[in-house]
Amino acid sequence: MKNLIYKSGILLMLIMTISYTGMAQQSFRFSQFFQNTITFNPAISGSEEFIDLKIGYRQQWSGLNDAPQTYYISAHAPLQGKKEKRYGFQNNSLRISDPSMYERLGTSRSAGNAISHGIGGYIVNDTQGIFGQTSGMLTYALHYNMGQSVLSFGVGGGVNSRQLDLEGITVGNNEIPDATYQAYLAQEGRITNIDMNVGIFLRHENYYIGYSAKRLLQNELFANISAIGASEEIEHYGIVGLRFNVNNTLLITPGAFVKYTANAPVLYDINVRVKYEELLWLGASYRNTETVIAMAGLSLNNLVNLGYSYDLGIGDINDFRSGTHEIGLGFMLFNKKDTSPYMW
Fold first, then answer.
1. CA distance 189 to 191
2. pLDDT at 201
3. Going by DSSP bridges, is the β-strand pair 149-164/207-214 parallel, antiparallel, or unpaired?
């Protein structure tokens, strides 16, 4: 009986968490953030020498009814002029026995433009019980080639639509109507706003670091509803990583990902990934929500790549928070130089 009461309390807490997240309209989050960086930093747009197309799905708390689910599709590509674009470094899929060839590949430069451009976009659908939101963004980035590194500036614009399934709510007789419910009801359960984000990203053969901010317009959560003065908070993201080429077949990348929003706890992931011969990679991560993450992926002929991760909660509510699956499928279209993605 005690165990039943404990689990019922935990379930109630989870339902409250889902409701709070829906009301506060927190953005989606991915464990494999390095696979889909364009969704939080527009400066990544066009950073590869091919069209980088990603499709993915995330299922949180598998086995729990109405658990959060996220679907996404994203793509970005370089805009090349008449001159060939070449960064001061590049990944290459050649399996070669002479390590010095990688050095020559990494330091080779052409007389291409110092400034290049990239475009991209994404659509993400995120549902959490009776709450849902769909975000669609178009992005642009300017890349400045500094020889051994590239500094990028990006901006994105689009729409964010939040929905509430009114049919999934049963309202009792209450002398004091709930203001939030009435606000949703007045707008037929849907609120759509225009939004913007910006980012900066510095990448080098041996490291990368970036910062971005989303929801710059800080839209009101409920338009023309004076009883509720809630508005969106700007979300700040930071990403940093090192790249160690142990030899011509092994790449090790430790890194971190941080998210900060005013009036909310700081969230961060610390991870390490190992890639073998541009073919197979393994990784592990720790998130400060008492979560450990196991990751693995596979690349096929630098055309298709597949990534999978599993989140395991290690805190007091492990029974409900564990079992989060995330899978991503990537396509490297028009990859004429047979290069692999810089961000994995």
1. 7
2. 98
3. unpaired
Residues 6+ apart with CB under 8 A from 146: 88
Residue 7 has pLDDT above 50, yes or no: no
141 DSSP β-pair partners: 118, 154
Please give the single-letter amino acid code of residue 40: F
For the chain, percent of residues with pLDDT exceeding 90: 51
Backbone angles phi, psi at 44, to 5 degrees: -75, -20
Residue 228's CB is within 10 A of a number of other CB atoms, namely 14
* 214 touches 28 (CB < 8 A): no
As a whole number of angstroms, the distance between CA 202 and CA 344 comes to 16
According to DSSP, the residues that pair with 143 across neighbouring strands are 116, 152
Strand partners, 190: 163
Per DSSP, 38 falls in state G
pLDDT of amino acid 163: 84
Cβ atoms of 228 and 180 within 8 Å: the answer is yes
CA-closest candidate to residue 14, choices 125, 126, 128:
128
Q: What is the pTM of this model?
A: 0.81
Compute the distance between CA of residue 30 and CA of residue 326 in angstroms, rounded to an integer: 8
Domain 2-333 in CATH 1.20.120:
no
Cβ of 143: how many Cβ atoms within 10 Å? Answer: 26
Q: Which of 127-136, 213-222, 256-265 has the highest mean pLDDT?
A: 256-265
Sign, CA dihedral 268-62-70-202, equals positive
Whole-angstrom distance between the N-terminal and C-terminal Cα of the chain? 49
Distance between CA 335 and CA 90 in Å, rounded?
A: 13
On the CB side of 263, CA atoms within 13 Å amount to 7
What does the alpha-carbon distance between residue 204 and residue 63 come to, in Å, rounded to a whole number?
Answer: 42
Beta-bridged to residue 208, according to DSSP, are: 203, 241
**pLDDT tens for each residue of 124-139:** 999 887 888 999 999 9
Residue 287 · residue 268 · CB < 8 Å: yes
Residue 67 CA neighbour count, 13 Å, CB half: 15
Q: In this predicted model, which residue has the larger pLDDT, 1 or 26?
A: 26
Q: What is the mean pLDDT of residues 265-282?
A: 94
Q: Which helix (H) or strand (E) holds 86?
A: none
